[in-house]
Design goal:
Elements: E1 3-14, E2 17-28, E3 32-36, H1 43-51, E4 58-63, E5 66-67, H2 73-79, E6 81-84, H3 96-105, H4 122-132, H5 147-159, E7 165-169, H6 177-194, E8 197-201, H7 205-211, E9 214-219, E10 222-227, H8 229-234, H9 236-243
Parallel strand pairs: 3-8, 3-9, 6-7, 7-8
Antiparallel strand pairs: 1-2, 1-4, 4-5, 9-10
Length: 249
Amino acid sequence: MTAILEARQLRKVFGVTPAVDDVDFSIDAGTRTALIGPNGAGKSTLFELLGGGLSADSGHIAFNGADITAWPPMRRAQAGIARTFQIAAVFRSMTALENVQTALLATVPGGGGLRAASSAFKGEAEALLDTVGIAAAMESAVTDLAYGDVKRLELAMALAGNPRLLLLDEPTAGMAAAERRRIMERATGIAVARGIALLFTEHDMDTVFGFADRVMVMHEGKIVADGAPGDVRADPLVRRIYLGADADA
């Protein structure tokens, strides 16, 4: 496989404490990678570095062969990196359809901004809402949507730019088990169909080991384990620092 994303000696320090400490990894095109670890391990900081929300103190990030270390978030998005957030980043004053139209407009230089959302890309937006399973709610205000549907809407918005890499930050947080399974089945199905690489953080281990084909474990700013789900689940260090000594192997 070909690496779509590479991080080399990536480092971010807050005060005197490194949140990301000389991290090295690569993500292959079309793969599904889970990033797990205890609270404070550095997962969210690493996501911010990859998405461009934070600047690295040192190290390099390459995407699709280009050095994107200094690129701002919008340029990374235009290059093919999309992300969702722990708290869904949607426009709550708009309908579901208008949210996706706005996301599509953002992919076009000089697209017209928010005021043009009501008339542009209607067919494309409807198709994306159908893809994530909420076409029936397209005219609903975001404030009227169920929590799981808001997360699906955010996924549709992330897909608007035809990404090659999708960063999902705790995509199932706050959901019941059945809804977690449904949204991950939807997200991974879309990724497989479109050849998108997924990198997602998650605390629910059933989700991690049910949907990832690779698991990376962070602890104190470092990646301490990286491999197939079964191998990582059986790793003594991972069991001690995160899964618990009595976790099923």
